[in-house]
Each structure stands twice: as structure tokens, then as C-alpha cells.
TrEMBL record:
<dbReference type="GO" id="GO:0016597">
    <property type="term" value="F:amino acid binding"/>
</dbReference>
<dbReference type="InterPro" id="IPR006130">
    <property type="entry name" value="Asp/Orn_carbamoylTrfase"/>
</dbReference>
<feature type="binding site">
    <location>
        <position position="86"/>
    </location>
    <ligand>
        <name>L-aspartate</name>
    </ligand>
</feature>
<dbReference type="Pfam" id="PF02729">
    <property type="entry name" value="OTCace_N"/>
</dbReference>
<dbReference type="GO" id="GO:0004070">
    <property type="term" value="F:aspartate carbamoyltransferase activity"/>
</dbReference>
<feature type="binding site">
    <location>
        <position position="137"/>
    </location>
    <ligand>
        <name>carbamoyl phosphate</name>
    </ligand>
</feature>
<dbReference type="InterPro" id="IPR002082">
    <property type="entry name" value="Asp_carbamoyltransf"/>
</dbReference>
<feature type="binding site">
    <location>
        <position position="265"/>
    </location>
    <ligand>
        <name>carbamoyl phosphate</name>
    </ligand>
</feature>
<feature type="binding site">
    <location>
        <position position="266"/>
    </location>
    <ligand>
        <name>carbamoyl phosphate</name>
    </ligand>
</feature>
<dbReference type="InterPro" id="IPR006131">
    <property type="entry name" value="Asp_carbamoyltransf_Asp/Orn-bd"/>
</dbReference>
<feature type="binding site">
    <location>
        <position position="140"/>
    </location>
    <ligand>
        <name>carbamoyl phosphate</name>
    </ligand>
</feature>
<dbReference type="Pfam" id="PF00185">
    <property type="entry name" value="OTCace"/>
</dbReference>
<keyword id="KW-0665">Pyrimidine biosynthesis</keyword>
<dbReference type="GO" id="GO:0006207">
    <property type="term" value="P:'de novo' pyrimidine nucleobase biosynthetic process"/>
</dbReference>
<protein>
    <recommendedName>
        <fullName>Aspartate carbamoyltransferase</fullName>
        <ecNumber>2.1.3.2</ecNumber>
    </recommendedName>
</protein>
<dbReference type="GO" id="GO:0005829">
    <property type="term" value="C:cytosol"/>
</dbReference>
<dbReference type="InterPro" id="IPR006132">
    <property type="entry name" value="Asp/Orn_carbamoyltranf_P-bd"/>
</dbReference>
Length: 309
């Protein structure tokens, strides 16, 4: 198929056909990762700038590995000590990067819409959203899709329970978009104080009782709890949250016998997930991390390089 996307801002306008095609490309990239020499010249001569306004380990390193495996030239642009810290606008910084020859910019920013803003201001370079505020994290959703499909083979008709702080989660929003398009029923659970009022508009049902939400689910997805939520009074205490909503072995046992446990990382052990569950047989958390590299390789290749038919 002809690939029509130059940027990745969100998955809202992706079709199911495009998602299926993309996952096939990611499968191929994962095969490359299994080779003794994990490098191909697909993006040789391309310059990619990783422009992270927020700290990140998994996303930034995953993008960097993907870029280097495709032989791109990589620039990690730090805002501390740069012109941004001296008052230069993001727009002017981006134009500077493009003038220097950047073919793509990977951006992570605390402001909703930052990636979209950048894509509209740049004239030639592609923009990849690595997380914008509480709005979205599309590459996380793509890697979640890839890891789940690798386990199940087919996602149509599956059921996914997303448990935790949906209100502040960009991951949840992107996952709902992606998994729903693939025919997955998504149900949300968590404290009402951490649930958006417009959850129905997200395309997912809300079940306040986590036991009912997880019962029979094929995928149990735990969202990271940020401990400052306790300070804001949105949850009574970390211990109480874990007792009520944490992925204990007892809670996960209510899911389908072949269900998997997922988490975007980093993990707060004994908060949203028990160590025995995170390290258990049902967990595909490390497979998600591996899928992250393959998915980002596929994304960069399709948007900057070409298409494998």
C-alpha cells in the first residue's frame, strides 16, 4: 500500500488497514533485531533530532536505538544549556534545526498539542510525537498493539481492561484509539477522581469495580500512578490504592486464563502492580519494551525511507 503519513501526531486518522500494514512492517523490523549485526542502511544520510523537553528513558533510548539501527545520523538535543533555556521559542529552535538539515524531529513535551504545533511550523522535516502532555503517546500505543498481537495473533474480539490514572494518562488515550480500531473492547477502571468525565467520548466504558473490569479480560493494562496524586488528594493513600486497584495475583486471576499483563513503564512495584505479577508468566512488559524499538524502526522507515510491499 502507499504510505500517506509524513508525521505521527496521533493515531486518530489512522485506519485499521494502515495499522495492520504497519504492524507487518514492525514484524519485519523485529526480525532485523534478531540478526547478529543489527544495522541496515535504510536511512543512511538522514538526520534525526531527538528533542525532549521532558525526561524519558525508555522512549528516548528506544527511538535512538531505532534510528541508529537504520543508520540515521542522530542528534540528541537537550533543552538545558541550549537556546531554549535562554528564552528562544520552540518554533525558532525547530526552524534552526531544520536549517541545519534535520529530516525529522522526535519531540516530547509537557504541553498538549506541542507536536502538532511543530509539524505545522516546519516546512520539510517530519515530526514524531513522543508524548505531548496528557494528550497522547502514539508510539506507545503502537508498541502495545504490536506486543499484544505477537502474543495473540489476532486482536479482533479481545477485551482489554485499562486500570489506573486515566485522567492524566496520555498512554490510555492513544491505546483506546489504537485497540478500538483493531476490534478490541476497552473498559476503564480506577478511582472516579482519576477518571475523565468524558470517558465515553474516548470510546471506552467505565467500570468502577476493578474486579468486574478485569473479569474475563484478555489484556490487563496497568497505568503508572504518579505519587504526587496522593499529595493532591486524588487518592487516599498509596497503600489503599494498591489494595483496591493494584494488580495483585488475586485480581489478575479473575482475567481470562490466557490473559496478559501490560504496563507502559516505569513500574511502581507494589503500587499499581505487585512484583510477583510484573515478573510473572502473564507479564509481557519486557516484550513491550522490545516491540518499542521495532515499532519505532518501522515508523521512521515508512515516513522517511520507503515501503516494503
Amino acid at each position: 500500500m502507499q504510505w500517506r503519513h509524513r508525521h505521527l501526531i496521533s493515531l486518530e486518522d489512522w485506519t485499521r488497514e494502515e495499522l495492520e500494514f504497519f504492524l507487518g512492517q514492525a514484524d519485519y523490523m523485529e526480525e532485523l533485531m534478531n540478526r547478529p549485526i543489527k544495522k541496515v542502511p535504510a536511512l543512511r544520510g538522514k538526520m534525526i533530532v531527538n528533542f525532549f523537553f521532558e525526561s524519558s528513558t525508555r522512549t528516548r533510548v528506544s527511538f535512538e536505538l531505532a534510528e541508529k539501527m537504520l543508520s540515521a545520523d542522530v542528534v540528541n538535543w537537550s533543552t538545558s544549556g541550549s537556546s531554549v533555556s535562554k528564552g528562544e521559542t520552540m518554533r525558532d529552535t525547530a526552524w534552526t534545526l531544520e536549517a541545519m538539515g534535520a529530516d525529522a524531529v522526535v519531540i516530547r513535551h509537557s504541553a498538549v498539542g506541542a507536536a502538532d504545533y511543530l509539524a505545522r511550523k516546519l516546512h520539510r522535516a517530519s515530526v514524531f510525537n513522543a508524548g505531548d502532555g496528557t494528550n497522547g503517546h502514539p508510539t506507545q500505543a503502537l508498541l502495545d498493539l504490536h506486543a499484544a498481537r505477537r502474543r495473540f495473533g489476532k486482536l479482533e474480539g479481545k477485551r482489554m481492561a485499562i486500570v489506573g490514572d486515566v485522567l492524566h494518562s496520555r498512554v490510555a488515550r492513544s491505546d483506546i484509539q489504537a485497540f478500538s480500531k483493531m476490534g478490541v473492547e476497552v473498559v476503564l477502571s480506577g478511582p472516579r477522581t482519576l477518571m475523565p468525565l468524558y470517558h465515553n467520548e474516548l470510546g471506552a466504558a467505565y467500570e468502577p469495580d476493578p474486579k468486574k473490569a478485569v473479569a474475563g479480560a484478555d489484556m490487563v493494562y496497568l497505568l503508572r500512578i504518579q505519587k504526587e496524586r496522593q499529595e493532591e488528594g486524588l487518592i487516599p493513600s498509596i497503600d489503599e490504592y494498591h489494595r483496591r486497584y493494584g494488580a495483585t495475583e488475586e485480581l489478575v486471576a479473575l482475567a481470562d486464563a490466557n490473559a496478559v499483563v501490560m504496563h507502559p513503564g516505569p513500574i511502581n512495584r507494589e503500587v499499581e502492580i505487585a512484583s510477583s505479577v510484573a515478573d510473572g508468566d502473564r507479564s509481557i512488559i519486557l516484550k513491550q519494551v522490545r516491540s518499542g524499538v521495532a515499532v519505532r524502526m518501522a515508523l521512521l522507515y515508512l515516513c522517511l525511507g520507503g515501503v516494503r510491499n
